[in-house]
Amino acid sequence: MILYLMTMEERSSTESLYDSLRVQESKGGAYLNYRDLDIGRNNNNGTTSYAQASIWGFKYFERNFNRLVRLKTIPDPDNFFRNEQSITPLPSL
């Protein structure tokens, strides 16, 4: 994925455009609306463990992943609403 970013300055627009194109420094994260299934995916039957889901969960949501897992567990403990890389609820005790 390529990201183009440009801010307007006093210089000519063409010069500014070429000066602003550069490779973006990556933290190794992922973009939520672009599923990268190479970093992991849920099992088809919905039995993905927290450990499995954390592989891609921390890449998408960083420090918010644990909080989102706890929030998902409340309304959807059976993981009815899921996709290839959705947040997995904690197992029932």
From TrEMBL:
InterPro entries: BBE (IPR012951), FAD-bd_PCMH_sub2 (IPR016169). Keywords: FAD, Flavoprotein. Residues 30-87 form the Berberine/berberine-like domain. It comes from the Eukaryota. GO terms for molecular function: flavin adenine dinucleotide binding; oxidoreductase activity. Transmembrane segments: none annotated. The keyword Amino-acid biosynthesis does not apply. This is Berberine/berberine-like. The lineage of its organism: Eukaryota, Viridiplantae, Streptophyta, Embryophyta, Tracheophyta.
